[in-house]
Amino acid sequence: METSVGVVNNLKKKRYLVACYKTEDAINSMQQVYLKLKIDYGDRPLTFNKARLLIISEHMEILFRTQRQLKLMDGYQFYGVAKNYKFNSWANSSANNFYRGQLEITKALYGVNDRDGLLSMYLERGK
Fold first, then answer.
1. Residues of the chain with pLDDT under 50
2. Per residue in 20-45, pLDDT tens?
3. Torsion-angle region of residue 74: left (phi > 0), alpha (psi -120 to 50) or beta?
4. How far apart are CA 61 and CA 39, in angstroms?
5. Alpha carbon distances (Å) from 11 to 36, 61, 97
6. Distances (CA, A) of 36 to 46, 76, 94, 106, 109
7. Looking at the DSSP assignment, which residues form a beta bridge with residue 46?
8. 23 φ/ψ angles, rounded to the nearest 5 degrees
9. Which alpha helices (DSSP H) does the chain contain, by range?
10. Which residue from 77, 78, 85, 93 has the least number of CB within 10 angstroms?
């Protein structure tokens, strides 16, 4: 099933959201996560899509979204959500409220946010 922003909604894939302040921050976080995943995943296929701010593998997709893009994520369900260090400090209240709402939805659906620890393992907290 294709969603309005063109991301394939495959129930077999775990979908993660990383909230970022601006596009540059999203790209920096993507590069950081991608390099760490490449080291751990080895030869398994992993796609880095800078234009769509997305990392995709066979079993997961990680969406990196700026505070302005977050409102387009309404209605999505995420296995885990996280925010990069600049989002924490600079995002507006609307974006922060959306993030908190997604966090609560994720906890309600799965009992815990990011059960596998993927985001906490690969996304650096604070610089």
1. 1-10, 126-127
2. 999 999 999 999 999 999 998 888 89
3. beta
4. 17
5. 25, 11, 26
6. 11, 26, 31, 24, 27
7. 57
8. -60, -40
9. 23-41, 85-90, 93-110, 118-122
10. 93
Q: What are the structure tokens assigned to 55, written together? A: 């990392």
State the amino acid at position 28 in one-letter form.
N
Is 98 within 8 Å of 36 (Cβ atoms)?
A: no
- pLDDT tens-digit map of 100-111: 999 999 999 999
121: its two tokens: 């393992």
Q: Any idea what DSSP says for residue 82? A: E
Structure tokens at 67: 């505070």
Spatial CB neighbours of 46, under 8 Å, sequence gap ≥ 6? 34, 37, 38, 55, 56, 57
Tokens of 61: 């997709």
**How many CB atoms neighbour CB 114 within 10 A?**
20
Q: How far apart are CA 19 and CA 78, in angstroms?
A: 12
Residue with tokens 């296995």: 79
